[in-house]
């Protein structure tokens, strides 16, 4: 019967330094579960799904518009008149 010897790399390795083979992370398991359940939830709540998708697209369009406006106004002095209070001057700078 063959009795294998421990190599120097295995002898110096701390116990428990590696995860056992085939172990899965809880985050990966939750992501897989969400990916499997997403179509069922989408078919069960079609109005909520359409509203969520519409809101996501609207948020993306709005954020691009705001970023484009900020880039265009960057470095210029802008004024904002507040009736009864006065005028505020501001400048948008980017880092």
SS-derived structural category = alpha+beta
- What percent of residues adopt helix (DSSP H or I)? 40-55%
**Shape estimate:** elongated
N→C terminal distance: 70 Å
Oligomer: single chain
Counting DSSP H or I runs of 4 or more residues, the number of helices is 3
H/E series? HHHEE
Give the low-confidence spans: none
- Please compute the radius of gyration using only Cα atoms: 29 Å
- Mean residue pLDDT: 82
Largest sheet: 2 strands, antiparallel
What is the total tally of β strands? 2
Structure description:
This protein has 95 residues and is α+β, with helices and mostly antiparallel strands. 55% of the residues lie in helices and 13% in strands. Strands 1-2 form a two-stranded antiparallel ribbon. A hairpin with a 3-residue loop joins strand 1 (77-82) and strand 2. The protein is elongated and about 90 Å long. The model has no long low-confidence stretch (mean pLDDT 82).
What keywords describe this structure?
alpha+beta, single chain, 95 residues
Please give the structural blueprint.
Elements: H1 8-12, H2 26-44, H3 46-73, E1 77-82, E2 86-91
Antiparallel strand pairs: 1-2
């Amino acid at each position: 019967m063959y009795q294998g010897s421990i190599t120097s790399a295995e002898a110096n390795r701390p116990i428990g330094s590696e995860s056992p083979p085939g172990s899965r992370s809880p985050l990966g398991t939750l992501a897989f579960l969400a990916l499997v359940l997403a179509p069922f939830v989408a078919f069960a709540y079609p109005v909520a799904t359409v509203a969520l998708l519409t809101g996501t697209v609207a948020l993306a369009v709005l954020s691009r518009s705001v970023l484009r406006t900020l880039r265009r106004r960057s470095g210029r002095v802008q004024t904002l008149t507040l009736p009864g209070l006065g005028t505020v001057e501001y400048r948008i700078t980017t880092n």
